[in-house]
Amino acid sequence: MKKNFARMIPLLLQGSKPAAKGGLELLSLTGKLCRGPMKITIDYLLRIWGVEMPDYEADVSAIIDRFHANLAELEKNPLNNARTHALLDKVRKGFMFYEMMYNAPTRFIPNLLSRKADENFRLIRQIKAEYKKAIETKNAATGK
Fold first, then answer.
1. What whole-number distance in Å separates Cα of residue 139 and Cα of residue 82?
2. Of 123, 25, 136, 19, nearest to 77 (Cα)?
3. Cα–Cα dist 82/67, whole Å
4. Which of residues 31 and 3 earns the better pLDDT score?
5. Contact 74/61 with Cβ under 8 angstroms?
6. Which of 4, 62, 96, 127 is deepest in the core (most CB within 10 A)?
7. Sequence-separated (6 or more) residues with CB below 8 Å from residue 116
8. Which of 87, 104, 92, 86 lies closest to 64, judged by CA?
9. Contacts for 14 with CB less than 8 Å, ≥ 6 apart
C-alpha cells in the first residue's frame, strides 16, 4: 500500500503547471502539508486492518511534528495575504482531526478519513495556487 501511495502523489500533481520562477521551496512545503495527512491515513488504516507496524507511534508522531514545523514556516512567509492566512488556518484546524484520531481509543470510519484527506488536499491546492500567483506577480514586477 505504501508503494502505491508513493506512486499516487505524482499522479495527483499531474496537470499542474510548472512552478513560477523562484519560490520552489515554498511550493514544496505546500506539498509536504498535503502528504502528512495522507501518510497518517494510510498508516492508520493499515494498523486497524491488522498490519503489524512496530514503529507506528514514532512514525505518526514524526509526521505530526513535521506538519506543524512546515505549517509554521509557511505562516511566516512574506507572500502570505488574507486569503492564504485563512486557508492555512483551515489546514491547521483540519489537521487537528488527525491528531485526535491518532490519540483516540476508538476506530474511525475509513470513508471519513478519505474525505478529510481529500479536503486537506483541496485546501493545499488553493494555497499553492495563491503562492504561484504571488510569485508570478513578484517576478513580473522585478522583471525575472
1. 20
2. 25
3. 21
4. 31
5. no
6. 127
7. 37, 41, 94, 97, 98
8. 92
9. none
Give SS3 for 91.
helix
Q: Which of 138, 115, 119, 118 is nearest to 22 (CA)?
A: 138
Residue 25 C-alpha cell reads as: 521551496
Where b means 16+ CB within 10 Å and e means fewer, 30-44 reads: bebbbbbbbbbbbbb
Contact indicator for 74, 29 with CB cutoff of 8 Å: yes
Q: List the grid coordinates of 75.
A: 505562516
Q: What is the pLDDT of residues 16-75, one digit of tens each?
A: 444 444 567 777 788 888 888 888 888 888 888 888 888 888 988 999 999 999 999 999
| Helices marked H in the chain | 2-13, 24-48, 56-75, 82-103, 110-142
Return d(Cα 38, Cα 107) in angstroms, integer. 17
pTM: 0.75
Q: Fill in the DSSP letter of residue 78.
A: T
